[in-house]
Amino acid sequence: MTTIQEIKRRSRGILGPLFGCLFLTYFVYHSLQGEHGILAWWSLNLRIAEAESVLLDLQLQQSTLNHRVRMLLPESLDPDLLEEQGRRLLNFTHPDDMILLPIKVTTSLSK
Q1: Alpha-carbon torsion 21, 24, 27, 32, what sign?
Q2: Using the 8-state DSSP alphabet, how is residue 37 labeled?
Q3: Tell me: the pLDDT tens digits for 63-105?
């Protein structure tokens, strides 16, 4: 038997498992990578969790604003809230109000 015939005979036994391994590697790689792979799925789940967190924050803000609007409706007008909004809008204060102004404090280290 010549060497070429020996190589051909042995290669027939290797080609099947080799193509099987390549075939398996191809599908494993594409199940992990790509726009429909596992890594993309994890990334999408993270983005969904972040979006749900933002949604909860916005829903809380909306409920707070809805409550304040309901308190300004003529049927359920809250005099304190009306006065607060009027003062803020017109930049007025009540004579009994105390106004605290921030003071810039500087320290001197030299004596």
Answers
A1: negative
A2: S
A3: 999 998 887 787 878 788 788 888 888 888 778 878 778 888 7
- Predicted TM-score (pTM) of the model is 0.50
The residues near 37 (Cβ < 8 Å, ≥ 6 apart) are 30, 31
**Angle, CA of 11, 15 and 16, to the nearest 5°:** 135
Report the first-to-last Cα separation within the chain, whole angstroms: 105
In whole angstroms, what is the distance from residue 69 CA to residue 89 CA? 16
Q: Which helix (H) or strand (E) holds 69?
A: helix 38-72
Residue 71, exposed/middle/buried by CB under 10 A (0-12, 13-18, 19+)? middle
Q: Let me know: does 55 contact 62? Beta carbons within 8 Å.
A: no
65, 67, 72, 74 alpha-carbon torsion, rounded to 10° = 140
- CB contact at 8 A, 37 and 30: yes
Please, is 85 exposed, middle or buried when counting C-beta atoms within 10 Å of its C-beta (0-12, 13-18, 19+)?
middle
Q: Where are the domains of the chain?
A: 8-90
